[in-house]
Design a protein that fits this description.
Elements lengths: L1 H16 L26 E4 L2 E4 L2 E4 L4 E7 L2 E6 L4 E5 L4 E7 L4 E2 L5 E6 L6 E6 L4 E6 L10 H8 L2 E6 L2 E5 L7 E4 L11 E3 L14 E3 L26
Antiparallel strand pairs: 1-2, 2-3, 4-5, 5-6, 6-7, 8-9, 9-10, 10-11, 12-13, 13-14, 15-16
């Protein structure tokens, strides 16, 4: 009897010592972190269901409507789906991310999007080197007791793009533009006035923002020959 009691007490003690998930542990996105094989200096575009990376063609089955290149891979949306997919040219898979737009920082390290998997929507920034979600914030996206579907239809919130490491968002329920510093995960105390990026239909490329007050100045914007969209002359298409 004493032996049985000792076993029970020991079992309860061990159970009490087992650690649960640490709330300080970083949230990780369902994305690969190792560098992919696709060249980051190749011209990349999409026509129909085919993504072209330099001389390589990648068939993905449905029309590509938005995409970004980062870390040797292509992240993209296709058809009417809000599921973010990733391909390295050899294999393609769905991720758990849900959105309508994709933006990536100029250095390819950070991915920015509006997470539409639940209400209210939230601004999400992922560090593609670690898959850590450094920003997950529903600021400016309305309150749970609002008619959020109606709000989003009227306000049309969207991710504008990156200015350096700052992701800028046109919110649904706040005036002006909200930004997040991807390096710290915080919202800077200062704001910027930015014009929306031009986007190539079907390819999802967007040029960097033209911002006043964020360390860059407005410049003449020549026309992109592939789409009729415009970009500053120093912009790198993403």
């Amino acid at each position: 009897m004493r032996q049985l009691l000792a076993v029970v007490v020991l079992g309860l003690t061990l159970a009490g010592c087992q650690s649960t998930s640490d709330p300080s542990d970083p949230e990780l996105a369902d994305l690969p972190t190792d560098p992919g094989p696709l060249p980051d200096d190749a011209v990349t575009w999409a026509v129909g269901d085919t993504i072209h990376v330099g001389d390589q063609s990648i068939r993905v089955g449905k029309r590509v409507r938005a995409m970004v290149e980062a870390n040797g891979r292509i992240l993209f949306l296709q058809g009417h789906s809000d599921v973010v997919r990733v391909t390295d040219g050899e294999s393609t898979r769905a991720t758990e991310l849900r959105t309508d737009e994709l933006r990536v920082s100029d250095d390819g390290r950070y991915l920015g999007l509006l997470d539409q998997s639940e209400m209210p929507w939230s601004t999400v920034v992922v560090d593609l080197e670690t898959a850590e979600v450094v920003v997950d914030d529903d600021a400016g996206m309305g309150d749970a007791d609002d008619d959020l579907s109606d709000l989003y239809e009227d306000a049309e919130p969207r991710v504008l793009g990156f200015d350096g490491n700052n992701l800028l968002v046109d919110p649904a329920s706040a005036p002006g533009t909200i930004s997040w510093d991807a390096g710290t995960g915080e919202r800077p105390s200062t704001t910027s006035t930015c014009s929306s990026p031009a986007t190539t239909p079907g390819a999802g490329r967007s040029c960097p923002l033209s911002c006043a007050g964020a360390g860059s100045s407005s410049q003449p914007t020549p026309t992109d020959p592939l789409s009729g969209a415009t970009c500053p002359p120093t912009a790198r298409w993403r």
